[in-house]
Write a structure and sequence with these properties.
Keywords: Cytoplasm, GTP-binding, Hydrolase, Metal-binding, Nucleotide-binding, Ribosome biogenesis, RNA-binding, rRNA-binding, Zinc. By secondary structure, the protein is an alpha/beta fold. It contains 13 helices and 13 strands. Bound molecules: guanosine-5'-triphosphate (GTP) and zinc ion.
């Protein structure tokens, strides 16, 4: 078929969207959502990035949270001739959707990202590796209509035989998704990863906190470059505080990186916690207090083990971090919003305690 909008192709446009672009009027601009900040959108078309708002007429006809534009969406925008806010009049059908179920009785979803071609599930081969959790992620990715890949990070921290056994465990579980390996420290595997990220394809990385996603994305981007680019003339305007969540890599691949990604797949992750940290939870039965949190209590067997070196400090830190997170993500969205700020403070105080 004839592509009407060939210059959108580098932003991820293809025939699939072309067939669903009938809603767009001839005068409309088709753009891709780069970031969402409440009702304000940052969108990009071949000419650059600009701000837009969802038109009242659209809001009037669409009431579900998941119908609102989210990062990765293709939208039809009526540009404002004065160059101020564009108006989003339609959201094109989504080819894939990463979402999580919102709390409550009504089946409603919070969108995390749309039109992601490939979700790269990241696990660290050092402590974080867990086939059950991997499988849960795989289910969610497939459910959303994207293709899953697996990336094992921190390969510098384990021997080749450990890595080989982890790959074997993944295969033994019947998982056929491609498996990549990477060390952000030695850079080993980075070239392969860059090579495999194809131009005009949209990727995102999901996985537990601390597995190295940010470090890796920074490597992929050359973060300083991104920041200077943000300041100098992308046409985003002076008062832009919205952080871009859809990023264009040098090689032409698109990467979505947003806070929602970090929540994706975390629900129900505590059984994995139990498995991964059975050494710590096992020791916990020897603490003086039954409800010991293993952070500051006198007579804590876990802290003793950390201080004596029987349990590595990194392993313990990881345990505390993941435990806080899994508890946090079990809360309903509303509760969480309220606690968001307190939670940040809490994590800081825990971290401070750990440093003592
Ligand atoms: N040894 C080793 N450490 C790494 C590697 N990648 C990241 N790290 C370290 O692991 C820690 C966590 O890395 P991040 O990139 O912040 O992890 P993340 O997955 O983005 O974590 P969140 O931002 O919390 O989701 C940092 O101290 C990194 O320096 C790696 O390949 N090898
Ligand atoms: Zn304890």
């Amino acid at each position: 078929m004839k592509i009407r909008y060939p210059d959108l192709a580098p932003l991820g446009w293809n025939e699939w969207f072309e067939e669903r672009a009938a809603e767009c009027r001839p005068g409309d601009t088709i753009a891709r959502v780069v970031a969402v900040d409440r009702d304000l959108l940052l969108v990009m078309d071949p000419a650059g990035t600009f701000r837009a708002k969802t038109a009242g007429s659209y809001l009037f006809r669409h009431h579900l949270v998941q119908e609102l534009p989210c990062v990765g969406d293709w939208v039809c925008v009526e540009k404002d001739p004065a160059g101020e806010l564009g108006r989003v009049r339609a959201v094109l059908e989504r080819k894939s959707a990463l979402r999580r179920r919102a709390a409550g009785d009504v089946v409603d979803y919070q969108m995390i990202a749309a039109n992601v071609d490939c979700v790269i599930i990241v696990q660290s081969c050092h402590f974080d590796f867990n086939v059950n959790r991997l499988e849960r992620y795989l289910v969610m990715v497939k459910d959303g209509g994207a293709e899953p890949w697996i990336l094992l990070t921190k390969t510098d921290l384990v021997g080749p035989e450990v890595l080989a056994s982890q790959v074997a465990q993944i295969r033994a579980a019947g998982v056929t998704a491609p498996v990549l390996t990477l060390s952000n420290v030695t850079g080993r595997g980075m070239a392969d990863l860059k090579q495999i990220l194809a131009p005009a394809q949209t990727y995102c990385f999901v996985g537990s906190s601390g597995v190295g996603k940010s470090t890796m994305i920074n490597h992929l981007l050359g973060r300083e470059l991104l920041e200077t680019r943000g300041v100098s003339g992308t046409g985003e305007g002076r008062h832009t505080t919205v952080r871009r969540e859809l990023l264009l890599l040098e090689g032409g691949a698109l990467v979505i990186d947003n806070p929602g990604m970090r929540e994706f797949g975390l629900l129900g992750a505590e059984s994995g916690m139990e498995e991964n940290f059975s050494d710590i939870t096992g020791l916990g039965t020897g603490c003086r207090y039954g409800n010991c949190t293993h952070t500051a209590e006198p007579g804590c067997a876990v802290l003793e083990a950390v201080n004596s070196g029987a349990i590595s400090r990194a392993h313990y830190d990881n345990y505390i971090k993941l435990r806080q997170e899994s508890a946090f993500y079990q809360m309903s969205y509303v509760e969480k919003r309220k606690k968001d700020r307190n939670f940040g403070k809490y994590v800081k105080s825990v971290k401070k305690q750990l440093k003592k």
